[in-house]
Amino acid sequence: MREDTMEFEGQVALVTGGSRGIGRAIALKLAAAGCDIALNYRSATREAEQVAERIAGLGRRVELFQGDVSDPDVPQAVFTGVRGSFGRLDVLVNNAGITRDELLVNQSLKDIEEVLATNLVAPMLTVQAAAPLMLRRRYGRIVNISSSAASKPGRGQSNYAAAKGGLEAFTKAMAVELASRGILVNAVAPGVINTEMTDTIRSHGEEEIMRRLLVKSYAEPETIADAVAYLASPRNTYTTGEVLHVDGGLKMA
Ligand code: NAP
C-alpha cells in the first residue's frame, strides 16, 4: 500500500535487523512513504528476501546487507556497502536486538556480552560509521529502538535493561553532538509487541503483562513503525534526544 504522503521520496534509510518483526515493519513503512531501503539482517535470508520483494513491489530500491552487527567489524562494513550502493544516507534505524532473559545470578558472561554487543555497542558503532556522511550533507535522522525494559525492567532483564538504558543515554549524547549539523537523534521504547522475540513472555506471562498494561492488548509491529516514521521524517524538525514510549501505558504501572 502506498502512503498518501511520499515524504521520504529520494531518501535512503538503513534499517538493522529488518528481516522480521519490528524492523521489517519499519522498512516497509518507510518504503511505502517513498524511501529506498538498505536492509541489514543476521541470518534469516529467506525472510529478508521476502521483505525486499515487498519493498521492490512498492517501486523502491532495496539492497540486502547480511551481517551480525554484534561483531564489531560489521557496522562499518555494512555502512561501507550502503555508501557504495546508494551514495547517501538520510535515515538510520538501529533496530537489531536480542534478549537473553535470566536472573543475574544465573547469567553467563556470554549472555551479558552478547546482549550488550547487539543492543548497545552495535548502534554506537553504526552511528560512528554513518555520522560522517550525514554530517557532510548536514541532514540526518537517527532512531534507536530501545525498550520499556530500560525504565521498567521485568525480572531476568538486567542485561537487556542495562543495554537499552545505555542506548537511551547514548541517544541523548548523540543529540547533543549532532544537532548543530541538522542531525536529530531519538529513541522509541516499545512495550510488548507481537513478534517472535516475545513469544515466550506472551505465552507464559500474559496475566502479569495485562495487569501492567493500561491499554489491554499487545501492539503490532506497525504501531512502532508509525512512531519511528514520524521521528525519522523531514516533518520532525524540533524533537531530538527524546525517548518516545509506545507501550500501552506499561511504564505507568
Ligand atoms: P525479532 O522479532 O526477534 O527480530 C529481530 C531482528 O533483528 C531480526 O531481523 C534479526 O535478524 C535481527 N537481528 C538480531 N540480532 C542481530 C544481529 N546481531 N545482527 C543483525 N541483525 C540481528 O525482534 P523484534 O521484536 O522485532 O525486536 C526489534 C527491536 O525492538 C529490538 O531492538 C528489540 O530489543 C526491540 N523491542 C522489542 C519489543 C517486543 O515486544 N517485540 C519490545 C521492546 C523492544 P535474523 O532474522 O536474521 O535473526
Automatic annotation (TrEMBL):
It is an enzyme of class 1 (oxidoreductase). Keywords: Oxidoreductase. One of its GO terms (molecular function) is oxidoreductase activity. Its EC number is 1.1.1.-. It comes from the Bacteria. It holds the Pfam family adh_short_C2. Residues 11-182 form the Ketoreductase domain. Belongs to the short-chain dehydrogenases/reductases (SDR) family. This is 3-oxoacyl-ACP reductase family protein. It comes from Streptomyces sirii.
